[in-house]
């Protein structure tokens, strides 16, 4: 075990697109756990689009980071010291940690990694078995509520959340159409995940025509991670009683203009569409149930998953910045350290 | 009874804001009813914002009018000839008719005017006791679902629908804040209708500050008839689990640009807001119940109503155009002929 540990803090608030200067690498001593705390050595760190919101000096569902604050994020890692009865050295856990090689965490807030899955894929706990998987689970089954025969459209379909949404919707009997940003991603959707159709939004000129072709019966439900012109196309083809889940709006996260409310809502009237923002945290009382389902689907092969892994803690900023370029297929994670077993 | 009758047809499709040339006045013979039909002499004609949509060559929830088509609209009038068993000459009815002095209507589609209310206010059947009243009823109680203690915001609050929404929300125990376009209207909201606060959006510079002042606990439900900057202010102050009913978007109806979907949806995420378009026609199976309630509330004084009356059939286009200038307080109707009693 090293005596020093590195961490990233918010170096400065980005104006528009974040860049390397947004992040500042610091080195310090490895902290000592106090009663109830656990020292976790990070094996994998999650980078997620919502973190862009915390870099802004504006209250939202997650508190903003101040310049100099250590940045938060989900981690999966190994207990290296424990002052909490429930945890022993050598166990693998996941939970909300920090962009740091070691995190002192409250033992009450950690979740064990299922030992039977440990060798399968530790980083899956940051994706399909973690917050993104639960976001997909509740966003699909509680907000979109697809019926058999419905057509479900998804933006950001090859990402951690979108790829899981599409597979859950398929399990529910829906036809699934996904937008993604490369031919490789479209192949992944169609060949590996069983989507009925994928649309490459970077090479397709007319989104409406492509969508009409891929979804000839219109759109009954739309899971939106992106916003912007893809959404314009989907909203133009909503069926009566359509549901829209607003999960993220990555196309707009770097817009520092005065925030306005939704514009151009007349298109909701004819289809009596329901558009709903949601936060996975509201479903906390049902997380265990969702975890069980997702684990079962992953184990029996009903749900495929993939992680894009950037190696090396020092490359975490690049992994984050790549989210806005669409670099990742599936969940973007950073490999910080090799698990010790 | 005259032998000739006047009617308006769509003269040409408007490009942007409609004007007098949008309408063409025609004169013809009074038609004869066939079996099952009733000839209704129009006393009052309704003009409504949704009619703008029917002037556009685009399918929506109401079929577009072709150039030369007689324009449709709700009427309240008197039976002057009947070939339908249910109706006798001299009875007052209301239903979907036309912009014409006489309409041949299917007797099965007409509704009787309650004789006890007839002297109270025939034009109320085009407002609080008609389609706008029912729109307010279902939009409030089924879409917004205000709880006691909630704050409800309304745009277009002094109009036929908005003024009824606010009063129903008050009856449900909510605090009600309305946006309207003149001091006279704001006084009407506050003094006559019992709104907790009114905001004159034509003289107020900072909508957000005014709204924060009028609704210090934030907005739990928003009934939107208008769209645009008023909505921006409301969306910035939504509470968790807020509901937004999209009834109309009069600020945008004359926009002939390429229709885009909703933009700027990130603001829905933190409050987990639900935005829903709705059409009153979907609640047809419960119209009778809504009618009963509304009639009771009007009769016992729980709900106030007002009609803005333009005199003379030939002035119907001006009455319609005035909707976009905010000329009306309460329901805008055209008085076509004096009832014969």
TrEMBL record, chains A, B:
Signal peptide: none
Protein name: Putative NADP-dependent oxidoreductase yncb
Region ranges (Disordered): 1-30
Keyword Protease belongs to the record: no
CDD domains: PGDH (cd05288)
SMART domains: PKS_ER (SM00829)
Enoyl reductase (ER) domain residues: 19-334
Taxon lineage: Archaea, Methanobacteriati, Methanobacteriota, Stenosarchaea group, Halobacteria
UniProt keyword GTP-binding present: no
